[in-house]
Amino acid sequence: MPSSNWPSSTMNLTQPSTVSRYESPCDARRRALLTQASQEGLHAVLVFAHGSSLGAGTRSHGALRYLTQWDGHEALSLLVCTSSSCTLLLGSPFLLPLARQQHPELAVVDAAPATWGAHLSRLLADVQGVATVGFGEMPQAVFAPVQIELAKRIQRPFDAWLDTARSLLDSTQQAVHREAAAICDRLFEALGPALQRGLPAWRIQIALTQLAFELGADYCRTWLTAAPQADYPRYWKEECLRVPQRGDQVLFGIMLTVDGHWGHGIRMGHLGQPSPELLKLHARVLAALGAGLDALRCDRPLGAVEAAMQTALPVDARHGSHFRYGHGLGHSYEEAHATVAFPQWFGAATPAAASSTPSVQAGMLLELHPNMFVPGLGGAAIGEMVLVHEDRAECLLAFPRDLADWS
Prior knowledge:
By secondary structure, this protein is α/β, with parallel strands linked by helices. It has helices at residues 26-38, 60-68, 96-102, 116-123, 140-150, 159-166, 171-195, 201-214, 276-295, 302-312, 336-339; strands at 44-49, 77-82, 86-90, 107-110, 129-133, 154-157, 219-227, 249-258, 261-270, 326-328, 365-368, 371-374, 378-381, 384-388, 393-395, 404-405.
C-alpha cells in the first residue's frame, strides 16, 4: 500500500538519521556503572547485547542502548569499559562504518564473536575483576571462549544494579517516550481507514509499520486481531491472512521505538454493530485499567497495581486466557526492575507471584494493559503508557479508550 494513501504527518518530527537526535548522558552513565563496580573490586564492565532486530525479545539491547545509544541491528555486540577506555567489539564487519560514524567516543573494533576471548585477553590484561551485563542472553557458542578468558578473573553479574539505575527516566528520556506515544496515536487514527480497504490484516500491518517509520520510529511491530471472536494477539503474516469483515471484533497492539525509547499501546473496537458480549468485555478491561491507575501512587509497592487489576479482572485459566497485565518501559520493552511485579500469564505455566516488588517512584514509565480472551465470547485489551509523577499518574496516549467504531 503506497504511503501516499495515508495522511501526511502533522507532528513536529524530524526525518530519521544515522545519528541520535537526542543528547543522552551515556558517558556519565558508563562512569556511574564503572564507579559502582569498582567499589566491589571490579575494574572493568562487559556489556553483551543483541541488536534491535529482536525487538521485544531482548533486554540486553536496552542496556547497551542506555550506555552508548548503539544499535547492532542483527549483529552481536560487546562493550568493554575500563577506567581508561571503552571498546565496542562488533560481531559484523558490515556495521563497522556506521558504528565509527556514530560513535567516535568509542574504540570500535571489527571482531567476530569467536575472537572475543582473544580481544578480552588484551583489553583486560591488568584487570582482576569484571562486572558483566547481558550475559544471560549470550549464545553458548559465544560464551564458551569468552568464559575461558573470564575464568581467570573475578566476575560478577551487574544486571540488577543497572536495571534499577535505568528505572527512573530523566526529562529527555520522557520527552522521547512522548514522541513514541504520539506515533502510536497516529497509527491508531490510521487503523480505521485501513480496515476499509479490503486487505488482509498482514497488509494493513505493513502499511501502518511504514507509516510509523515515516513518522520517526526506528523499529515497529504490531499485532492485529480482527475476527468475529478475537482469540489472541496475532502478530505474524501466517496468522493474519484473513480480511477484516463487518461484525468483527478488532484489537490492535503497537510496539515501536524512537531513538531506542519504547512506545506501546493497545486499543480495541469493532466493525459494524458491537455485540453485547464485546461491550461487557470492554467494560471489564476498562475497569481493570482504572483500578491499576488508581493504585499507581508513589511509595506504594508495584505489586499493589497488579493486585488491583487482578481484583477487577481475575486471572482464571479455566475461563479464558490472559497475557501480562503490565510491565516497565524504557530502552527495553520489558524493563526488568518494574516488570517483576507483573507475572506473564500467557502460556502453559502459571508463574509464581514475586515475593516482593519495588516501590512506585516518580520517573517510572509503565505499560498497563489488562486483557482477556474468552472462548465463545471474544477478546478485549486496553493498553496505556503511564508516566509516574510525584502527585499523579499521567497517561501518554491521547487516542480514546472507548470501544472504537472502525466501520
